[in-house]
Amino acid sequence: MENPPDQTESKEMMLPPRTRRPKGGLLTMPFIIANEGFEKVASYGLLQNMILYLMSDYGLGVVKGQTVLFMWVAATNFMPLVGAFLSDSYLGRFLTIAIASLSSFLGMVLLWLTAMLPQVKPSPCIASAGTNCSSPAATSSQLALLYSAFALISIGSGGIRPCSLAFGADQLDNKENPKNERVLESFFGWYYASSSVAVLIAFTVIVYIQDHLGWRIGFGIPAILMLLASIVFVFASPLYVKRNVTKSLFTGLAQAAVAAYVNRKLMLPGQSDSYGCYHHLKDSELKAPSDKLRFLNKACVIKNRDEDIGSDGLALNPWRLCTTDQVEELKALVKVIPVWSTGIMMSINVSQNSFQLLQANSMDRRLSNDSTFKIPAGSFGMFTIIALISWVVLYDRAILPLASKIRGRPVRINVKIRMGLGLFISFLAMAVSATVEHYRRRTAISQGLKDNATATVNISAMWLVPQYVLHGLAEALTGIGQTEFFYTEFPKSMSSIAAALFGLGMAVANILASVILNVVKSSSKKGGVSWIEDNINKGHYDYYYWVLAIMSFVNVIYYVACSWSYGPTVDQVRNDKVNGVGEEEQEEVVKIN
After folding, report:
1. Does one domain contain both 181 and 231?
2. Residue 81: its pLDDT value, please?
3. For a Cys staple, 198 with which of 40, 285, 524, 564, CB 3.0–4.6 Å?
4. Virtual CA dihedral for 359, 362, 367, 372, nearest 10 degrees?
């Protein structure tokens, strides 16, 4: 007689988990990480060999082709700022990623069509005996189609890259979970690991396919991968936690800057009456702004409480009156800009991969004299990624534990020293690049190959590996160091800005790299030949690399000045306070003297 109640009870116990299953969690991770991974495989796989495609199929010279790529990479690194703004303010992260995935897919389909349809690019030229062949230049409509493909891919990257990491964290961030921080730390580790693996696949598998199976298949596979990424991500839509959109931090920073300018003629209150003259939120710990960059404090000065503040305690016009928190956030951003600018030169050096591709393409890429396998020219970038990953693992798992064991206390190298060391290594990378290119060019000329850019010089391409490794170490020290520096120096509310600054630096670097390239091309031209020529054996790429090396060395000096003027970091101040109260087990931090 008691069976029916038991059955009903068991049904009631079984139903809620099915109908009330909490959204998010580890179940959503494969969909989010796969979307980001496929996007990276597709976009990075297309970029590596693109200079060869532009030169061979579109007839673009090396300078114009590289300028196009510089602009494409700059747009790809700038668009995440737009994507983050739209995501935070209007669309939300899920919709932003979904639209961006579709945009990337459409861009890759357009690029694939340029390889499939002969009429959308210049016709190939077949030379008859005794005649010279010159391919017709690409028409405006043909270039428009190509640039549209690049633009759609950049828009896609701008939506996926700034949102995927934050969207994944949304699925796991549970304040009630006592192991919440450990879960997020594990997610960040797996996220960056999967991103690195994706880039390695792009630099090896996709590049190998393009070299051996042609552009049609080489461009088609990234398009298929992007389609899979879009389908996989949208398929899991019912499982995701989707946060509501909020006011964008970018808007708050803009409001603080505008308000400071509008109120520039105001007099700042004195120390005695400052407490009630600055606008702040009720739960804010900042009742008055700091004394640093005092001209920005005018943005939060209350002129007339009845006219400036509403009944809810908020400013009636946020573009004329801001809170103390907004002002301090803007100050934090302004303060780091000089240090941020020092990383631009390193990014300029890293962006020279197309020229390194031309070098590798002209050298012996066999692993040994007896080997028939050749490393694809576009795959040499994998040594940069391998060096970066190796340094991260060694630093975290070997160097720091060993140093701590020797010193008998926890040891950590200060972030400013790591950034400076990375910039110096970037200078060494360009010096090595110039030296190797000088040796390669001299060997090519001695072998009678000065006028033959397609011939293979009898010198191993493995000579290029040291410069790739040095670039990887520079990125590991300065790139990761800058991101850590921004995160620790900014308030927690500015985490999204910290993540976007490095990408913005890459965007600025590619624009400046284009300017430097064209200036060197025009200013070095003598007798119709410049340092940068389509025929790498005729030009003087080694001189161009020395120009970048000199600029990098000057940048190291500039960084030392910026680091000194910035003053102690948050971590240094914290450790100084610990030392002041006499605790013995504080972290030992190596400081710049």
Report:
1. yes
2. 85
3. 40
4. 150
